[in-house]
Design a protein that fits this description.
The complex is a heterodimer of chains A (250) and B (225). Chain A is an alpha/beta fold and 250 residues long. Helices cover 36% and strands 25% of the residues of chain A. Chain A is built from eight helices and ten strands. In chain A, the strands form two sheets. A six-stranded mixed β-sheet of chain A has the order 6-7-8-3-9-10, with helices on both faces. Chain A has a four-stranded antiparallel β-sheet with strand order 2-1-4-5. By secondary structure, chain B is mainly alpha-helical. Helix content of chain B is 87%, strand content 0%. The radius of gyration of chain B is 18 Å and the shape is globular. The chains are: A alpha/beta (250), B mainly alpha (225). At the A-B interface, helix 2 and helix 3 of A face helix 1 and helix 4 of B.
Protein backbone atom coordinates (compact mmCIF):
# COMPACT_ATOMS: atom_id res chain seq x y z
CA UNK A 1 0.00 0.00 0.00
CA UNK A 2 1.33 3.44 -0.89
CA UNK A 3 1.32 6.28 1.61
CA UNK A 4 -1.44 8.06 -0.28
CA UNK A 5 -3.85 5.11 -0.43
CA UNK A 6 -6.54 5.11 2.20
CA UNK A 7 -6.00 2.51 4.97
CA UNK A 8 -8.44 -0.37 4.44
CA UNK A 9 -9.50 -2.20 7.60
CA UNK A 10 -13.00 -3.37 6.87
CA UNK A 11 -14.59 -2.72 3.49
CA UNK A 12 -17.51 -1.02 5.24
CA UNK A 13 -16.73 0.58 8.56
CA UNK A 14 -18.85 2.83 10.74
CA UNK A 15 -17.91 4.40 14.05
CA UNK A 16 -20.43 6.14 16.34
CA UNK A 17 -22.64 6.61 13.28
CA UNK A 18 -25.77 8.66 13.89
CA UNK A 19 -28.50 9.63 11.50
CA UNK A 20 -31.37 11.94 12.41
CA UNK A 21 -34.33 13.20 10.43
CA UNK A 22 -35.24 16.59 11.89
CA UNK A 23 -34.88 15.90 15.61
CA UNK A 24 -35.67 12.17 15.44
CA UNK A 25 -32.61 9.96 15.79
CA UNK A 26 -33.04 6.99 13.45
CA UNK A 27 -29.58 5.42 13.81
CA UNK A 28 -27.72 5.63 17.11
CA UNK A 29 -23.99 5.20 17.69
CA UNK A 30 -23.54 2.38 15.19
CA UNK A 31 -20.15 0.64 15.14
CA UNK A 32 -20.26 -1.79 12.24
CA UNK A 33 -17.51 -3.60 10.32
CA UNK A 34 -18.22 -5.53 7.15
CA UNK A 35 -15.19 -7.38 5.83
CA UNK A 36 -14.40 -7.82 2.16
CA UNK A 37 -16.28 -10.80 0.70
CA UNK A 38 -18.72 -11.06 3.62
CA UNK A 39 -22.45 -11.47 3.10
CA UNK A 40 -24.30 -9.77 5.94
CA UNK A 41 -28.05 -9.92 6.52
CA UNK A 42 -29.28 -6.67 8.01
CA UNK A 43 -32.47 -7.50 9.89
CA UNK A 44 -34.95 -5.63 12.01
CA UNK A 45 -38.55 -4.61 12.32
CA UNK A 46 -40.08 -1.87 10.19
CA UNK A 47 -38.69 1.47 11.32
CA UNK A 48 -35.61 -0.06 12.92
CA UNK A 49 -33.32 1.88 10.57
CA UNK A 50 -32.31 -0.81 8.05
CA UNK A 51 -33.19 1.15 4.93
CA UNK A 52 -31.71 4.34 6.37
CA UNK A 53 -28.43 2.52 7.02
CA UNK A 54 -28.46 1.11 3.50
CA UNK A 55 -29.08 4.59 2.07
CA UNK A 56 -26.02 5.80 3.99
CA UNK A 57 -23.95 2.90 2.64
CA UNK A 58 -25.17 3.72 -0.88
CA UNK A 59 -24.15 7.37 -0.58
CA UNK A 60 -27.73 8.56 -1.04
CA UNK A 61 -27.82 10.20 2.35
CA UNK A 62 -25.28 11.84 4.65
CA UNK A 63 -24.56 10.80 8.25
CA UNK A 64 -25.63 13.32 10.88
CA UNK A 65 -22.49 12.51 12.89
CA UNK A 66 -19.92 9.77 13.26
CA UNK A 67 -17.68 8.13 10.70
CA UNK A 68 -18.53 6.00 7.70
CA UNK A 69 -15.94 4.66 5.28
CA UNK A 70 -16.46 2.31 2.36
CA UNK A 71 -13.38 0.84 0.76
CA UNK A 72 -11.40 3.38 2.76
CA UNK A 73 -13.30 6.29 1.18
CA UNK A 74 -15.00 8.65 3.54
CA UNK A 75 -18.72 9.45 3.39
CA UNK A 76 -19.80 12.13 2.66
CA UNK A 77 -16.45 13.77 1.81
CA UNK A 78 -15.68 11.28 -0.97
CA UNK A 79 -19.25 10.37 -1.84
CA UNK A 80 -18.66 9.93 -5.58
CA UNK A 81 -15.82 7.47 -4.93
CA UNK A 82 -18.05 5.59 -2.48
CA UNK A 83 -20.94 5.44 -4.95
CA UNK A 84 -18.66 4.11 -7.69
CA UNK A 85 -18.05 1.02 -5.54
CA UNK A 86 -21.70 0.35 -4.79
CA UNK A 87 -24.30 -1.62 -6.70
CA UNK A 88 -27.82 -1.49 -5.31
CA UNK A 89 -30.86 -3.70 -5.79
CA UNK A 90 -34.01 -2.37 -4.20
CA UNK A 91 -37.63 -3.45 -3.96
CA UNK A 92 -38.14 -0.93 -6.75
CA UNK A 93 -36.48 -2.07 -9.99
CA UNK A 94 -34.56 1.21 -10.54
CA UNK A 95 -35.06 0.69 -14.27
CA UNK A 96 -36.75 2.60 -17.09
CA UNK A 97 -39.68 0.61 -18.35
CA UNK A 98 -39.84 2.25 -21.78
CA UNK A 99 -36.28 1.16 -22.51
CA UNK A 100 -35.25 -2.39 -23.39
CA UNK A 101 -33.17 -4.51 -21.02
CA UNK A 102 -30.05 -3.86 -23.09
CA UNK A 103 -30.73 -0.10 -23.33
CA UNK A 104 -31.17 0.12 -19.57
CA UNK A 105 -27.84 -1.60 -18.94
CA UNK A 106 -26.17 0.54 -21.61
CA UNK A 107 -27.48 3.72 -19.97
CA UNK A 108 -26.19 2.74 -16.53
CA UNK A 109 -22.87 1.49 -17.96
CA UNK A 110 -22.41 4.95 -19.49
CA UNK A 111 -23.32 6.69 -16.22
CA UNK A 112 -20.66 4.61 -14.45
CA UNK A 113 -18.21 5.34 -17.25
CA UNK A 114 -17.69 1.68 -18.13
CA UNK A 115 -15.02 1.47 -20.82
CA UNK A 116 -16.60 1.46 -24.31
CA UNK A 117 -14.33 -1.40 -25.37
CA UNK A 118 -15.79 -3.81 -22.82
CA UNK A 119 -19.29 -2.34 -22.40
CA UNK A 120 -21.30 -4.34 -24.93
CA UNK A 121 -19.55 -7.61 -24.15
CA UNK A 122 -20.18 -7.12 -20.42
CA UNK A 123 -23.84 -6.25 -20.99
CA UNK A 124 -24.31 -9.40 -23.09
CA UNK A 125 -22.58 -11.52 -20.44
CA UNK A 126 -24.71 -10.08 -17.61
CA UNK A 127 -27.95 -10.56 -19.56
CA UNK A 128 -26.93 -14.16 -20.13
CA UNK A 129 -26.03 -14.58 -16.44
CA UNK A 130 -29.48 -13.42 -15.28
CA UNK A 131 -31.25 -15.45 -17.96
CA UNK A 132 -32.51 -12.52 -20.03
CA UNK A 133 -30.32 -12.84 -23.13
CA UNK A 134 -33.31 -13.81 -25.29
CA UNK A 135 -35.37 -10.86 -24.02
CA UNK A 136 -32.52 -8.35 -24.25
CA UNK A 137 -34.29 -6.12 -26.75
CA UNK A 138 -37.75 -6.28 -25.17
CA UNK A 139 -38.99 -3.31 -23.22
CA UNK A 140 -38.81 -3.67 -19.44
CA UNK A 141 -42.51 -2.79 -19.10
CA UNK A 142 -43.29 -6.21 -20.65
CA UNK A 143 -41.23 -8.01 -17.99
CA UNK A 144 -42.64 -9.82 -14.97
CA UNK A 145 -41.59 -8.66 -11.50
CA UNK A 146 -39.10 -11.53 -11.28
CA UNK A 147 -37.53 -10.66 -14.62
CA UNK A 148 -37.29 -7.00 -13.61
CA UNK A 149 -35.54 -8.00 -10.40
CA UNK A 150 -33.06 -10.17 -12.30
CA UNK A 151 -32.37 -7.28 -14.67
CA UNK A 152 -31.98 -5.06 -11.64
CA UNK A 153 -29.17 -7.34 -10.43
CA UNK A 154 -27.50 -7.09 -13.84
CA UNK A 155 -27.80 -3.30 -13.58
CA UNK A 156 -26.20 -3.34 -10.15
CA UNK A 157 -23.31 -5.44 -11.47
CA UNK A 158 -22.67 -3.53 -14.70
CA UNK A 159 -19.82 -1.46 -13.23
CA UNK A 160 -18.36 -4.41 -11.27
CA UNK A 161 -18.84 -2.88 -7.82
CA UNK A 162 -17.04 -4.16 -4.74
CA UNK A 163 -20.19 -3.89 -2.62
CA UNK A 164 -23.71 -5.04 -3.43
CA UNK A 165 -26.60 -3.71 -1.37
CA UNK A 166 -29.97 -5.47 -1.48
CA UNK A 167 -32.87 -3.54 0.06
CA UNK A 168 -35.87 -5.87 0.59
CA UNK A 169 -35.17 -7.59 -2.74
CA UNK A 170 -37.79 -10.34 -2.25
CA UNK A 171 -40.73 -7.90 -2.11
CA UNK A 172 -43.38 -8.90 -4.65
CA UNK A 173 -41.57 -12.01 -5.88
CA UNK A 174 -43.23 -15.42 -6.12
CA UNK A 175 -41.51 -18.56 -4.78
CA UNK A 176 -39.73 -19.25 -8.05
CA UNK A 177 -38.57 -15.64 -8.40
CA UNK A 178 -37.32 -15.62 -4.81
CA UNK A 179 -35.43 -18.90 -5.34
CA UNK A 180 -33.79 -17.46 -8.49
CA UNK A 181 -32.83 -14.37 -6.51
CA UNK A 182 -31.27 -16.60 -3.81
CA UNK A 183 -29.16 -18.25 -6.50
CA UNK A 184 -28.05 -14.90 -7.97
CA UNK A 185 -27.13 -13.52 -4.53
CA UNK A 186 -25.17 -16.69 -3.77
CA UNK A 187 -23.37 -16.38 -7.13
CA UNK A 188 -22.47 -12.76 -6.40
CA UNK A 189 -21.19 -13.80 -2.96
CA UNK A 190 -19.11 -16.61 -4.51
CA UNK A 191 -17.75 -14.12 -7.07
CA UNK A 192 -16.25 -12.19 -4.15
CA UNK A 193 -18.69 -9.28 -3.85
CA UNK A 194 -19.27 -7.92 -0.38
CA UNK A 195 -23.01 -8.08 0.20
CA UNK A 196 -25.39 -6.42 2.63
CA UNK A 197 -29.00 -7.55 2.33
CA UNK A 198 -32.03 -6.33 4.26
CA UNK A 199 -35.03 -8.62 4.35
CA UNK A 200 -37.96 -9.79 6.44
CA UNK A 201 -37.72 -13.29 4.89
CA UNK A 202 -35.80 -14.77 7.83
CA UNK A 203 -36.03 -18.37 6.59
CA UNK A 204 -33.91 -17.42 3.54
CA UNK A 205 -31.18 -15.69 5.53
CA UNK A 206 -29.04 -18.71 6.62
CA UNK A 207 -28.94 -19.87 2.98
CA UNK A 208 -27.47 -16.64 1.63
CA UNK A 209 -25.73 -14.80 4.49
CA UNK A 210 -22.80 -15.66 6.68
CA UNK A 211 -23.65 -13.19 9.39
CA UNK A 212 -26.77 -11.60 10.86
CA UNK A 213 -26.94 -8.08 12.19
CA UNK A 214 -30.22 -7.18 13.85
CA UNK A 215 -31.10 -3.54 14.26
CA UNK A 216 -33.53 -2.53 16.93
CA UNK A 217 -34.67 1.07 17.33
CA UNK A 218 -31.59 2.30 15.48
CA UNK A 219 -29.08 0.30 17.54
CA UNK A 220 -27.28 -2.97 16.89
CA UNK A 221 -29.22 -5.50 18.95
CA UNK A 222 -27.44 -8.61 17.71
CA UNK A 223 -24.39 -9.24 15.56
CA UNK A 224 -23.02 -12.76 15.09
CA UNK A 225 -22.01 -15.29 12.41
CA UNK A 226 -24.71 -17.62 11.17
CA UNK A 227 -22.52 -20.71 10.95
CA UNK A 228 -24.65 -23.65 12.03
CA UNK A 229 -27.66 -21.44 12.78
CA UNK A 230 -30.93 -22.79 11.41
CA UNK A 231 -33.70 -20.51 10.21
CA UNK A 232 -35.81 -21.49 13.25
CA UNK A 233 -33.01 -20.49 15.59
CA UNK A 234 -32.60 -17.20 13.73
CA UNK A 235 -36.34 -16.48 14.05
CA UNK A 236 -36.06 -17.16 17.80
CA UNK A 237 -33.07 -14.82 18.12
CA UNK A 238 -34.84 -12.16 16.06
CA UNK A 239 -38.00 -12.37 18.18
CA UNK A 240 -35.93 -12.27 21.33
CA UNK A 241 -33.89 -9.23 20.26
CA UNK A 242 -36.76 -7.19 18.90
CA UNK A 243 -39.10 -8.35 21.70
CA UNK A 244 -36.60 -7.46 24.42
CA UNK A 245 -36.43 -3.96 23.07
CA UNK A 246 -40.19 -3.58 23.23
CA UNK A 247 -40.15 -4.95 26.77
CA UNK A 248 -37.48 -2.44 27.83
CA UNK A 249 -39.49 0.43 26.38
CA UNK A 250 -42.63 -0.37 28.38
CA UNK B 1 -12.81 6.81 -13.09
CA UNK B 2 -15.85 9.05 -12.71
CA UNK B 3 -18.04 10.02 -15.63
CA UNK B 4 -17.24 13.50 -17.01
CA UNK B 5 -19.89 16.06 -16.07
CA UNK B 6 -20.97 16.92 -19.62
CA UNK B 7 -21.13 13.27 -20.64
CA UNK B 8 -23.38 12.49 -17.65
CA UNK B 9 -25.68 15.41 -18.55
CA UNK B 10 -25.97 14.23 -22.14
CA UNK B 11 -26.56 10.58 -21.14
CA UNK B 12 -29.47 11.61 -18.89
CA UNK B 13 -30.99 14.00 -21.44
CA UNK B 14 -30.65 11.41 -24.20
CA UNK B 15 -32.28 8.77 -22.00
CA UNK B 16 -35.24 11.10 -21.34
CA UNK B 17 -35.64 11.83 -25.04
CA UNK B 18 -35.34 8.13 -25.90
CA UNK B 19 -38.00 7.10 -23.36
CA UNK B 20 -40.31 9.91 -24.55
CA UNK B 21 -39.89 8.94 -28.20
CA UNK B 22 -41.10 5.47 -27.22
CA UNK B 23 -44.07 6.46 -25.08
CA UNK B 24 -44.92 9.96 -26.42
CA UNK B 25 -46.68 10.31 -23.08
CA UNK B 26 -45.45 13.76 -22.06
CA UNK B 27 -45.58 15.51 -25.41
CA UNK B 28 -49.05 14.11 -26.15
CA UNK B 29 -50.41 15.17 -22.75
CA UNK B 30 -48.82 18.62 -22.87
CA UNK B 31 -49.70 19.14 -26.53
CA UNK B 32 -53.37 18.24 -26.14
CA UNK B 33 -53.69 20.36 -23.02
CA UNK B 34 -52.06 23.32 -24.74
CA UNK B 35 -54.25 22.96 -27.82
CA UNK B 36 -57.42 22.79 -25.73
CA UNK B 37 -56.32 25.82 -23.71
CA UNK B 38 -55.74 28.09 -26.68
CA UNK B 39 -59.01 26.95 -28.26
CA UNK B 40 -60.91 27.70 -25.05
CA UNK B 41 -59.23 31.10 -24.69
CA UNK B 42 -59.94 31.86 -28.34
CA UNK B 43 -63.68 31.18 -27.98
CA UNK B 44 -64.04 32.57 -24.47
CA UNK B 45 -62.38 35.91 -25.04
CA UNK B 46 -64.32 36.81 -28.24
CA UNK B 47 -62.01 39.72 -28.95
CA UNK B 48 -61.62 41.92 -31.98
CA UNK B 49 -58.41 41.71 -34.02
CA UNK B 50 -56.49 44.38 -32.08
CA UNK B 51 -57.49 42.96 -28.72
CA UNK B 52 -56.51 39.47 -29.85
CA UNK B 53 -53.00 40.69 -30.69
CA UNK B 54 -52.84 42.28 -27.23
CA UNK B 55 -54.00 39.07 -25.54
CA UNK B 56 -52.06 36.52 -27.57
CA UNK B 57 -48.79 36.68 -25.62
CA UNK B 58 -50.61 36.28 -22.30
CA UNK B 59 -52.55 33.30 -23.63
CA UNK B 60 -49.36 31.78 -25.04
CA UNK B 61 -47.36 31.95 -21.80
CA UNK B 62 -50.22 30.96 -19.49
CA UNK B 63 -50.71 27.91 -21.72
CA UNK B 64 -46.99 27.12 -21.81
CA UNK B 65 -46.54 27.41 -18.04
CA UNK B 66 -49.49 25.13 -17.30
CA UNK B 67 -48.36 22.65 -19.95
CA UNK B 68 -44.87 22.69 -18.32
CA UNK B 69 -46.39 21.97 -14.92
CA UNK B 70 -48.33 19.05 -16.37
CA UNK B 71 -45.31 17.61 -18.16
CA UNK B 72 -42.76 18.08 -15.39
CA UNK B 73 -45.10 16.61 -12.80
CA UNK B 74 -45.67 13.52 -14.95
CA UNK B 75 -41.98 13.18 -15.79
CA UNK B 76 -40.83 13.40 -12.17
CA UNK B 77 -43.61 11.12 -10.92
CA UNK B 78 -42.67 8.33 -13.33
CA UNK B 79 -38.98 8.84 -12.52
CA UNK B 80 -39.73 8.46 -8.83
CA UNK B 81 -42.21 5.58 -9.08
CA UNK B 82 -39.86 3.38 -11.08
CA UNK B 83 -36.95 4.28 -8.82
CA UNK B 84 -35.13 5.99 -11.69
CA UNK B 85 -34.25 8.97 -9.51
CA UNK B 86 -32.75 6.67 -6.85
CA UNK B 87 -30.72 4.95 -9.56
CA UNK B 88 -29.36 8.33 -10.64
CA UNK B 89 -28.62 9.32 -7.05
CA UNK B 90 -26.54 6.21 -6.33
CA UNK B 91 -24.45 6.67 -9.46
CA UNK B 92 -21.10 8.47 -9.10
CA UNK B 93 -22.12 11.59 -11.01
CA UNK B 94 -22.47 15.11 -9.61
CA UNK B 95 -25.99 16.03 -8.49
CA UNK B 96 -25.77 19.08 -10.75
CA UNK B 97 -25.40 16.76 -13.75
CA UNK B 98 -28.72 15.13 -12.85
CA UNK B 99 -30.37 18.56 -12.67
CA UNK B 100 -28.89 19.66 -16.01
CA UNK B 101 -29.79 16.39 -17.74
CA UNK B 102 -33.38 16.48 -16.48
CA UNK B 103 -33.59 20.16 -17.33
CA UNK B 104 -32.46 19.67 -20.94
CA UNK B 105 -34.88 16.77 -21.44
CA UNK B 106 -37.81 18.69 -19.89
CA UNK B 107 -37.04 21.93 -21.74
CA UNK B 108 -36.86 20.13 -25.09
CA UNK B 109 -40.36 18.70 -24.65
CA UNK B 110 -41.86 22.02 -23.49
CA UNK B 111 -40.10 23.85 -26.31
CA UNK B 112 -41.39 21.36 -28.86
CA UNK B 113 -44.98 21.84 -27.66
CA UNK B 114 -44.58 25.63 -27.46
CA UNK B 115 -43.24 25.97 -31.00
CA UNK B 116 -45.93 23.62 -32.32
CA UNK B 117 -48.54 25.96 -30.80
CA UNK B 118 -47.38 29.02 -32.73
CA UNK B 119 -48.86 28.22 -36.17
CA UNK B 120 -52.19 27.30 -34.53
CA UNK B 121 -52.19 30.56 -32.58
CA UNK B 122 -51.32 32.51 -35.72
CA UNK B 123 -54.51 31.20 -37.34
CA UNK B 124 -56.78 31.41 -34.29
CA UNK B 125 -55.64 34.84 -33.10
CA UNK B 126 -54.86 36.29 -36.52
CA UNK B 127 -51.50 37.58 -35.25
CA UNK B 128 -48.07 37.36 -36.87
CA UNK B 129 -46.43 35.31 -34.10
CA UNK B 130 -43.80 33.51 -36.16
CA UNK B 131 -41.09 36.14 -35.75
CA UNK B 132 -37.44 35.55 -34.76
CA UNK B 133 -37.60 37.62 -31.55
CA UNK B 134 -40.84 35.95 -30.49
CA UNK B 135 -39.10 32.60 -30.89
CA UNK B 136 -36.03 33.79 -28.92
CA UNK B 137 -38.26 35.11 -26.13
CA UNK B 138 -40.25 31.88 -26.14
CA UNK B 139 -36.99 29.92 -25.90
CA UNK B 140 -35.81 31.97 -22.90
CA UNK B 141 -39.23 31.75 -21.26
CA UNK B 142 -39.33 27.99 -21.73
CA UNK B 143 -35.85 27.65 -20.21
CA UNK B 144 -36.99 29.73 -17.22
CA UNK B 145 -40.13 27.64 -16.67
CA UNK B 146 -38.14 24.42 -17.05
CA UNK B 147 -35.45 25.48 -14.56
CA UNK B 148 -38.02 26.49 -11.95
CA UNK B 149 -40.23 23.50 -12.74
CA UNK B 150 -37.47 20.89 -12.62
CA UNK B 151 -36.23 21.77 -9.14
CA UNK B 152 -39.70 22.40 -7.70
CA UNK B 153 -41.09 19.17 -9.21
CA UNK B 154 -38.18 17.31 -7.60
CA UNK B 155 -39.36 18.67 -4.24
CA UNK B 156 -43.12 18.29 -4.70
CA UNK B 157 -42.94 14.79 -6.20
CA UNK B 158 -41.93 13.56 -2.74
CA UNK B 159 -45.25 14.71 -1.28
CA UNK B 160 -48.67 13.09 -1.45
CA UNK B 161 -50.39 16.19 -2.85
CA UNK B 162 -47.84 16.51 -5.67
CA UNK B 163 -50.43 17.21 -8.41
CA UNK B 164 -51.83 20.21 -6.56
CA UNK B 165 -48.64 21.38 -4.93
CA UNK B 166 -46.46 21.98 -7.99
CA UNK B 167 -48.71 24.69 -9.51
CA UNK B 168 -49.08 26.32 -6.10
CA UNK B 169 -45.34 26.64 -5.57
CA UNK B 170 -44.30 27.08 -9.19
CA UNK B 171 -46.62 29.87 -10.32
CA UNK B 172 -45.36 32.52 -7.87
CA UNK B 173 -41.73 31.62 -8.58
CA UNK B 174 -42.30 31.55 -12.36
CA UNK B 175 -44.15 34.87 -12.30
CA UNK B 176 -41.07 37.05 -13.07
CA UNK B 177 -40.26 34.81 -16.06
CA UNK B 178 -43.83 35.04 -17.31
CA UNK B 179 -44.02 38.81 -16.76
CA UNK B 180 -40.84 39.50 -18.77
CA UNK B 181 -41.76 37.07 -21.54
CA UNK B 182 -45.30 38.48 -21.91
CA UNK B 183 -44.12 42.11 -21.90
CA UNK B 184 -41.42 41.41 -24.47
CA UNK B 185 -43.71 39.38 -26.74
CA UNK B 186 -46.51 41.98 -26.56
CA UNK B 187 -44.04 44.69 -27.54
CA UNK B 188 -42.73 42.64 -30.47
CA UNK B 189 -46.24 41.84 -31.73
CA UNK B 190 -47.37 45.47 -31.43
CA UNK B 191 -44.44 46.44 -33.60
CA UNK B 192 -43.07 48.94 -31.09
CA UNK B 193 -39.39 49.97 -31.38
CA UNK B 194 -36.90 47.37 -30.15
CA UNK B 195 -35.57 49.62 -27.37
CA UNK B 196 -39.06 49.58 -25.78
CA UNK B 197 -39.23 45.80 -25.29
CA UNK B 198 -35.62 44.61 -25.51
CA UNK B 199 -35.03 45.36 -21.82
CA UNK B 200 -37.61 42.67 -20.99
CA UNK B 201 -35.69 40.11 -23.05
CA UNK B 202 -32.48 41.07 -21.24
CA UNK B 203 -34.21 40.86 -17.88
CA UNK B 204 -35.61 37.46 -18.84
CA UNK B 205 -32.10 36.25 -19.63
CA UNK B 206 -30.82 37.53 -16.28
CA UNK B 207 -33.69 35.82 -14.41
CA UNK B 208 -32.96 32.54 -16.24
CA UNK B 209 -29.29 32.74 -15.26
CA UNK B 210 -30.10 33.58 -11.62
CA UNK B 211 -32.68 30.79 -11.32
CA UNK B 212 -30.31 28.31 -12.97
CA UNK B 213 -27.48 29.29 -10.60
CA UNK B 214 -29.73 28.99 -7.57
CA UNK B 215 -30.97 25.59 -8.77
CA UNK B 216 -27.41 24.31 -9.16
CA UNK B 217 -26.62 25.36 -5.59
CA UNK B 218 -29.85 24.05 -4.06
CA UNK B 219 -30.33 20.81 -5.99
CA UNK B 220 -27.97 18.76 -3.82
CA UNK B 221 -29.95 19.72 -0.71
CA UNK B 222 -33.24 19.03 -2.47
CA UNK B 223 -32.34 15.46 -3.44
CA UNK B 224 -30.34 14.63 -0.33
CA UNK B 225 -33.09 13.19 1.88
Amino acid sequence: MTETSPPIKALIQSRALNKAYDLRLVLRQLDIDVLSGECVALLGANGSGKSTLLRLFAGMSKPTSGELTIGGWDMPREAAAVRAQIGMVSHKPLLYDNLSARENLRFFARLYNVDTAVREERIARLLDKVGLAKRADDRVRAFSRGMQQRLSIARALVHQPAVLLFDEPYTGLDQEGAATLDTLIAQARDDGHTIVVTTHELERVPRIAGRALILSRGRVGYDAPLTGTSSQELVAIYTDVTGMTRERER
Amino acid sequence: MNTPFLAAVLHIARKDVQTELRSRELVATMGLFALMSILVFSFALELDRQARVEAVSGVLYVTVVFASILGLNRSMTSEREGGGMDALLISPIPRAAILCGKLIGGALFVLFVSVALLPVMTILYNADILQPWVLITLFLGTIGFSVVGTILATITVQTRAREALLPLVMLPVALPVMLCAVRATTGILRGTPQEDWFVWVQLLLVIDVVYFGLSLVLYEYVVEE
